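Hi U.,

Before I forget, here's the chain from the pilot set. I'm dumping it here mostly so it's searchable later in email.
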Amino acid sequence: MLSVTIKVIGTEKARETFRRLGVSISNFSKELKTTGEYLVGFIKGPVFETEGQVYGGAWRSLNPGYQAWKQTNYPGRGTLELTGTMRKSFQAQSSQMFLRVFNPTPYFIKHQLGRDRMPQRVMMRIDEARKQEIVKIIHKGLVERVRKARGV
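Structure:
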């Protein structure tokens, strides 16, 4: 299982500020749902379209024998897209304070981590650009809450 944790620093000070404003920060379900949708869309889109280059380096090439077989039997299909099942299977589950982005296909983790003689081809990564996008989503939600609490 692959796990990523994002820790919010300054939580107690923020809670006190928002408490004084009458704004709850104990339920981020809207922001986490939006974040999950963003991440799943990013993985299914730019990550697969660039074959990992969006993270700074392309996925390792297929071995020549397999590439020749794939070109004959599945022409035009990209790396990690023999049937398209793995690309289509990314999902997000969220709750008030939790977000899980995952892929239930049994071979996903083998590719993601490079196991069982599979070269590593990272599909899920929270890089600096993704962190910044997540911060924007959370920030937007907090601003909306403050505006609503202040009647703006």
